[in-house]
Specification:
72 residues
Length: 72
């Protein structure tokens, strides 16, 4: 087995890698926060949906009694 030579990074390559890792960490943290808020968001949407379904529906145009065809 031939031993491989250890490869080293230049300062520029290391800086680029650090920048990429920092961006990935920020994205991951933001995603975790948004996923953490998901149950609250779902509960809020369910409440809003229930409130809307209990309201009486008003016609969009009250002067029109039938929407099936013009002049009906």
């Amino acid at each position: 087995m031939i031993p491989r030579r250890k490869q080293t990074m230049t300062k520029t390559q290391q800086a680029d890698l650090d920048q990429i890792l920092a961006e990935d960490l920020t994205r991951f943290t933001d995603l975790r926060k948004r996923l953490g808020d998901l149950p609250t968001t779902i509960a809020s949407l369910q409440k809003r949906s229930k409130r809307r379904s209990t309201r009486t529906e008003r016609p969009l145009f009250p002067e029109i009694s039938c929407y099936c065809a013009p002049g009906c």
